């Protein structure tokens, strides 16, 4: 099992460009998440998908959109990248978001730089 | 604003010593607590989860939870240089598994 995979690993964009970060999991998990991690700060939730067909905003959703393509895949799109979106992006998945003992597992991350 | 606070460190301990990492949280109704280890340039890796007051031991790691004081800690016994990493405290908040992360404590174990 690969667990949670993310592509690309690194990306450099110019301000105003768009891109999509891809995430896939092979653990048959129902719930998936997108986080960003900035220096000196904890991971912050951008969007999550509690189950296939649903998505909800997290703490910092502005400037992002998501698509839960199927049970395995959850993508994050930056429509018009800004320097403030320079960060490391992590995708995570968990079995069932509503369960109190639910545990999240993280992908390797995408390091994004917006010039 | 629900918060999770950690001392950023670095916490420096000699090899073989006990490392004590602390975390406080603001949301009184939080029920699930997690410790993740993150090596530089890598993704967070789950070490421990704890849901009830008291201690939970797993090998060299012990998580301690005190809900009345809104305090959770992680003890690492017989610290090794390979334990040098940033340790993230995460607290489940809300009806779904929305984790609130602290900024992390950097641990340095020196030989």
Kindly list the characteristics that best describe this protein:
heterodimer, A: 115 residues, 7-stranded mixed beta sheet, globular, B: 111 residues, mainly beta, 11 strands
Textual characterization of the structure:
The complex is a heterodimer of chains A (115) and B (111). With 115 residues, chain A is mostly beta strands. Helix content of chain A is 0%, strand content 49%. Chain A is built from no helices and eleven strands. In chain A, strands 2, 4, 5, 6, 9, 10 and 11 form a seven-stranded mixed sheet that branches. A four-stranded antiparallel sheet of chain A has the order 1-3-8-7, with no helix packed on it. The termini of chain A are far apart. With 111 residues, chain B is mainly beta. In chain B, the strands form two sheets. In chain B, strands 2, 4, 5, 9, 10 and 11 form a six-stranded mixed sheet that branches. The model of chain B has no long low-confidence stretch (mean pLDDT 92). Chain A binds chain B through residues 31, 40-45, 48, 50, 56, 58, 90, 94, 97-109, and chain B through 4, 8, 31-32, 34, 36, 42-46, 49, 51, 88, 90, 92, 95-104.
Topology:
The complex is a heterodimer of chains A (115) and B (111).
Chain A: E1 4-7, E2 10-13, E3 19-25, E4 31-37, E5 43-49, E6 56-57, E7 64-68, E8 74-78, E9 87-94, E10 105-106, E11 110-114
Parallel strand pairs in A: 2-11
Antiparallel strand pairs in A: 1-3, 3-8, 4-5, 4-9, 5-6, 7-8, 9-10, 9-11
Chain B: E1 4-6, E2 11-14, E3 19-25, E4 33-38, E5 45-50, E6 54-58, E7 61-66, E8 71-76, E9 85-93, E10 98-101, E11 105-110
Parallel strand pairs in B: 2-11
Antiparallel strand pairs in B: 1-3, 3-8, 4-5, 4-9, 6-7, 7-8, 9-10, 9-11
Structural class of chain B: mainly beta
How much strand of chain A? over 45%
The dominant shape of chain A is globular
* Distance, first to last CA of chain B: 40 Å
The chain-level mean pLDDT of chain A equals 93
**Helicity range of chain A:** under 10%
Query: In terms of structural class, how would the helical and strand content of chain A be classed?
Result: mainly beta
Number of strands of chain A: 11
Greatest chain-chain contact: A-B, 26 and 26 residues
**What integer value in Å does the Rg of chain B equal?**
13 Å
Q: Radius of gyration of chain A from the CA trace?
A: 13 Å
Please trace the helix and strand order of chain B, writing H or E for each element: EEEEEEEEEEE
Give the overall pLDDT of chain B as a whole number. 92
Number of strands of chain B: 11
């Amino acid at each position: 099992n690969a667990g949670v995979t993310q592509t690309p690993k690194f990306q450099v964009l110019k301000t105003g460009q768009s891109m999509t970060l891809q995430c896939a999991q092979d653990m048959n998990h129902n719930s998936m998440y997108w986080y960003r991690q900035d220096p000196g700060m904890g991971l912050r939730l951008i969007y999550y998908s509690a189950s296939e067909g649903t998505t909800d905003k997290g703490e910092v959703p502005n400037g992002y959109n998501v698509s839960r393509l199927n049970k395995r895949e959850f993508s994050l799109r930056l429509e018009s990248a800004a320097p403030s979106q320079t960060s490391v992006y992590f995708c995570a998945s968990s079995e069932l978001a509503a369960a109190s003992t639910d545990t999240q597992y993280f992908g390797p991350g995408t390091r994004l730089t917006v010039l | 604003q629900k918060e999770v606070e950690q001392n950023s460190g670095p916490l420096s301990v000699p090899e073989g010593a006990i490392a004590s990492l602390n975390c406080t949280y603001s949301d009184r109704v939080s029920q699930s607590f997690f410790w993740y280890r993150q090596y530089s340039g890598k993704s967070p890796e789950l070490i421990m989860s704890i849901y009830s007051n008291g201690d939970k031991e797993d090998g060299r790691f012990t998580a301690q939870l005190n809900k009345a004081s809104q305090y959770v800690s992680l003890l690492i016994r017989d610290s090794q240089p390979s334990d040098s990493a940033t340790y993230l405290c995460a607290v489940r908040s809300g009806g779904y598994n929305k984790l609130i992360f602290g900024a992390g404590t950097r641990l340095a174990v020196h030989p």
